[in-house]
Amino acid sequence: MGMTHVTVIVRNPAEPERTWEGLFLVDTGAVDCVVPGKHLREIGLKPKAQRTYELADGSKVKMHITTGEIEFMGDLVGSTIIFGADDAEPILGVTALESVGIEVDPRTQRLKRLPAARLK
Prior knowledge:
Number of domains: 1
Largest sheet: 7 strands, mixed
Number of strands: 9
Radius of gyration: 14 Å
Structural class: mainly beta
CATH superfamily: Acid Proteases
CATH topology: Cathepsin D, subunit A, domain 1
Strand content: over 45%
């Protein structure tokens, strides 16, 4: 299976002119988005809390989180964002995808827009 990437803009909702744009790996196994912490700090986002996440290998790690705006494929969504390591690969999690009605086509590995966002 191939990997799917999409260009994403992360925006500070308190100062919408402060943004960071990057190429994100679409990861339907990840709930929340991951952004290198240095880029979140550059646009003025600060940690608001910590949350424990389970990694692919089954280990657990406590990470700082914040909230911000995520824009991709012409849609905007408020999202929980994890402060990743400064060299972390940006990840677009499934919550942001589903919030705007976009899913990954398993055959083509491309993002496709649903006729409507799921409410159920």
